[in-house]
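Quick one:
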Amino acid sequence: QVQLVESGGGLVQAGGSLRLSCAASGDTICISAMGWYRQAPGKERELVAVVSRGGSTSYADSVKGRFTVSRDNVKNTVYLQMNSLKPEDTAVYYCNAVCVSWGATGDYRGQGTQVTVSS
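Output:
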């Protein structure tokens, strides 16, 4: 089992920045990829960014050049630095971790943190 706890959400004006953090605990040795999803009211969940254990990253087109995902494998923490925020970035952001153990894959998600960008 893996537990994920996010922090760092809040209210920011358009053009501003926020940094989200997500700390993993429990059976962290099994964690491979970590990343962030978001879901806005009335919209489908969107994969925002993902980072592998080795540091390879991937981003949604909508956030490329503005968001940066990183992780600290010693602290079992993943970060999302969000710059040049836009009102359309408003959503609940969820941390996600993929755990691979004994050939089985488990998917874990945090409780979510609200990000609101005002125009």
